[in-house]
Design brief:
- 2 copies of one chain form a homodimer.
- Chain A folds into 2 domains: 15-92, Orthogonal Bundle (Arc Repressor Mutant, subunit A), CATH 1.10.10.10; 127-286, 3-Layer(aba) Sandwich (Rossmann fold).
- By secondary structure, chain A is an alpha/beta fold.
- In chain A, α10 links the parallel β3 and β4.
- In chain A, α3 (49-56) packs across α4 (60-69) and α8 (154-168) packs parallel to α11 (254-270).
- In chain A, 44% of the residues are buried.
- The first copy, chain A, has helices spanning 15-22, 28-39, 49-56, 60-69, 75-95, 107-125, 129-139, 154-168, 179-182, 205-216, 254-270, 272-286; strands spanning 145-150, 172-174, 193-199, 220-225, 238-241.
- The first copy, chain A, has a 5-stranded parallel β-sheet.
- The longest helix of chain A has 21 residues, at 75-95.
- Chain A binds a DNA duplex through α4.
Chain lengths: 290, 290
Amino acid sequence: MRSGNNVASADGSSLAERIRHEMDAFTPSEKRAAHLLLSHYPFAGLDTVAEFASRAGISAPSALRFVTRLGFSGFPEFQKHLREELEAQLLSPLAKASPGDKSHGAPALSSFAEAVIANLTATVENIAPTEFDAIVALLSDRRRHIHFTGGRFTGALARYAESHFRIVRSDVHFIESQPALWRDRMIEIGRKDVIVSYDIRRYQEDVIALSEAAAKQGATVVLLTDPWLSPIARVARHILPAHVTVPSNWDSSAGLMLLTEALVAAVTKHLWETAKPRMEAVERLRNPKS
Amino acid sequence: MRSGNNVASADGSSLAERIRHEMDAFTPSEKRAAHLLLSHYPFAGLDTVAEFASRAGISAPSALRFVTRLGFSGFPEFQKHLREELEAQLLSPLAKASPGDKSHGAPALSSFAEAVIANLTATVENIAPTEFDAIVALLSDRRRHIHFTGGRFTGALARYAESHFRIVRSDVHFIESQPALWRDRMIEIGRKDVIVSYDIRRYQEDVIALSEAAAKQGATVVLLTDPWLSPIARVARHILPAHVTVPSNWDSSAGLMLLTEALVAAVTKHLWETAKPRMEAVERLRNPKS
DNA sequence: CGAAAGCCGTATCAGAAATTTCAAGACAAT
DNA sequence: ATTGTCTTGAAATTTCTGATACGGCTTTCG
């Protein structure tokens, strides 16, 4: 495994560039392989050796010799490199897709913002509409009680959700994730309850335990998590994954915030008939006069 | 939107779309596979069955059943389809990244997301770089105590900020905005303290009062608010406004979240020498073993 | 012209990957 | 409780792919 060699191009340049550069040094068969690969780069290299060789009009061993000469230990490694290159290339345009970009703002801020925006886009595109709608229906069911919970950081999001839903409808609760604080409340959780759990990586034991306990009691569990899915997924009825990776030592919860706000908006609209008077009442309580 | 729509998919369009559509008909294992695939679409499906299954946390046969259910005769055919789809998509850059596209996602969700993203862009573009940097410097000053506070909804953001900064540095506090809860704490607030207040429209009396009291004691006030500026602006030393308007009965705090996370990232980087051991210590406490 | 060197493809093998089988477990309905 | 259905993963099986050895062929150079 001397993978430390020069296979991975340091600059953003692709393998294709190196192939063009070394083209003269190839044998005739290798040139045929190289030309095929470049003409359909990199897809031509993604099926089997036999297929690749046949399209190039050469034999399988020649194709093997070709990739070996490029510095790969074998065909699978060659394909892996192509896939990774492709993935990187496909993802970057999204981040750079801000047109009028000469944005000022601290450089740290604007590049961070780009990453967050890319996350939001990716998050929305990967949500199943039915999943989202099903959750909206669930949270709009006034016969059910709703409980929000989350971990160290995501707990704040759970609170954020709770503080909105509390106004839109009744029977909305926030549960601290520490077992000592929910053990006794668990007796009230049953088939008609909905648990909305927030949990992203460095998944938190107590949130998992809470969700599993609630599921065991027959409650419906809704999970907001990262794309790698918290273990809570095992007991969750519905899952909304959000992308969280940003250039920071921390994960970003902006995607979870987006989903939360979208849920709040949708449920508010759905329950508008009953939500409106509630919101007005709250407004009146805050401004007793005027 | 009937003209100039996508030319990419002549057949049943993207497989991803179909998966989202049939999501609720899947078994739990299939859902895990589906979520993995969608979260890294389509690259997650380009490895071997074993790899794919392992990442999804299911067994190889379950992964096989998943692709079979999608209508493919086997895994290789499934992968071939993914590759072809990818190639088609890459060849027609117009097909993707079109801003106002009729993308999937619940319509409510995607239009909501578009508004949020527009807000984030506008927010970043209107931040004065010096302002952002000055705040980072302020929060990176370890001789100062930092206090976060916020209102009904924004309080959750203040907590979110606090839970991160608490790990990055010492002397970080959260203050409840109810006067009864901060009156006595005010005697400890002085010239060396920093108050970070979150307040958006329907500006909240108690947050304003708290901020003004702190300012009167000589504390430095940092304000995160909406573009119309909370009254706190009069006593604030630094202001970061975020756009909040979305198609909903509520305002969106996603911009505030973005700014918060950007501040956390910047300060963490700035204080890395001392933040790193702190973060490691926290990690060790959470995982006493391993 | 002859010989050496290198290049290429056929045939074959080893091993990995996909697929099928099957039994255990979960769940719902009765 | 009990049965039947559905789901799942471990293990056995099959298929197929990537890799290699070897001999023929072409090219090159003395």
